[in-house]
Design a protein that fits this description.
The chain is 9% helix and 44% strand. The longest helix is centred in the N-terminal third of the chain and has 21 residues.
């Protein structure tokens, strides 16, 4: 009887050693799969504030040992996404399994002004008005309204003069419109009185070349003059 007991204990010990020796540590990180694109591009609204709130397309998380971990995923950065303001936003998804292994994924949301290609300095501008021939101007794209830009030093009227223009797009021939009237000051008694969209358009709007023309009328306080500004770089 005592002999049989010794054999039983020995057999249990051998089995325990075999089972323990065959067990492996869990070193595999869980995987997060994002539904939809991981790099989204959204255009600004044509009216400030008109874009809806960003909606996450969804995600799943799995682990080779723990199975589905979707409900344990922590999402950060989602509340910062603002589809009504230009910028690049990053949403991060992270999860850990029972062994402490962690996995993560990111989704990028780019909120853009579709005429961003025109932003920057224009150092080869010309104007047919009587006040100037060559001049420099700066184009600043709106952070909140799509296709809207601000033109600084329009027509060489000075760096304090900023006029706003709406581009129909960046393709060649896309029309350009600008608000006009006696309330649009060009400094002193001068004002921007009219703009002609039919003769104001994009000449080139590629990544390597940007140029456009604006046909307008202005008044120096005494008389009207029709002129054309060419923005080239």
């Amino acid at each position: 009887m005592r002999k049989n007991l010794k054999f039983g204990i020995l057999a249990f010990a051998i089995v325990s050693v075999i089972v323990t020796g065959c067990s492996k540590d869990d070193s595999s990180a869980p995987t997060i799969s994002l539904t939809g694109s991981t790099d989204e591009t959204v255009s600004l609204p044509t009216v400030a504030g008109n874009n809806a709130a960003w909606t996450d397309a969804g995600f799943t998380a799995t682990d080779d040992e723990d199975g589905t971990l979707t409900s344990s995923v922590i999402v950060s950065g989602a509340s910062d996404v603002n589809l009504n303001r230009k910028g690049i936003y990053t949403v991060t998804y992270s999860v850990s399994d029972k062994a402490g292994n962690s996995g993560s994924a990111t989704r990028t949301i780019r909120v853009v002004n579709d005429v961003e290609v025109f932003a920057g300095a224009y150092n080869n501008c010309t104007d047919t008005s009587s006040i100037v021939n060559n001049y420099n101007a700066t184009i600043i794209t709106s952070d909140t309204v799509n296709n809207l830009v601000k033109i600084n030093n329009f027509g060489a009227f000075g760096n304090t003069v900023n006029l706003y223009a709406t581009f129909a797009g960046s393709a060649t021939g896309s029309t350009i419109t600008m608000p006009a009237g006696p309330s649009v000051s060009l400094g002193g008694t001068a004002y921007f009185s009219a703009q002609y969209p039919a003769n104001s358009f994009v000449v080139t709007g590629t990544s390597s070349s940007q140029s456009f023309t604006v046909n307008y009328q202005w008044n120096d306080g005494a008389a009207f003059e029709v002129a054309t500004s060419y923005f080239i770089r």
